[in-house]
Amino acid sequence: MSIPARRTVLAHINLNGAQYVPHPGLWLDKLLPQQFTQGDKQGVDAYREHFETATTIPVANVYRHFYERWKKTLETAEAKTAIATTKGRLVVGLGAESVLENAITLHRTYGVPIIPGSALKGLAAAYARNRLDDPQWQKGGEAYKILFGDTDAAGYVTFFDALYVPGSAKDDKPLAMDVVAVHHPDYYQRKDSPPADWDSPTPVPFVSVRGGVKFLVALAGPDAWVEAAFQILGRALAEEGIGAKTNSGYGRMMLEGYTPTTHAASQPRETYELAKLRLLKQETPPPGRYRGEVVEVKGRYGFINPARGGAKVFVHVSQLESGATSLQVGQVVEYSLGKYKGKTQAQKVDVLLNPNR
Amino acid sequence: MMRTLEQELAEKVYQQVSRLQVGSDFAKEYGGMAHKLPVLIRQAGLVQALAYVAARGKDGAKHLLEDLAQTLECESAEHLLKKSREADLLEYMHLTRKATVALTWYKRFAQSVLGVEPTEEVRE
Amino acid sequence: MQAKLMFLHALSPLHAGTGQGVGAIDLPIAREKGTDIPIVPGSSLKGVLRDACTTLRDDATCTRIFGPDTNNASEHAGAIVLTDLRLVALPVRSLAGVFAWVSSPFLLQRLARDAQLAAVGAVPNKPSVANANTVLVSNTSALRLNDNEVVLEDVKLNAQAQADEWANWLATRVFPNNQTWQADFEAHFCIVHDDVMSYLLQVGTDVTARIRLDDEKKTVAQGALWYEEALPAESILAGLVAAQPNGKAEPSEVFDVVAQLAEHPLQVGGNATVGRGLSRLSVAEEG
Question: From the list B47, B100, B119, which residue is nearest C220 (CB)?
Answer without folding.
Answer: B119
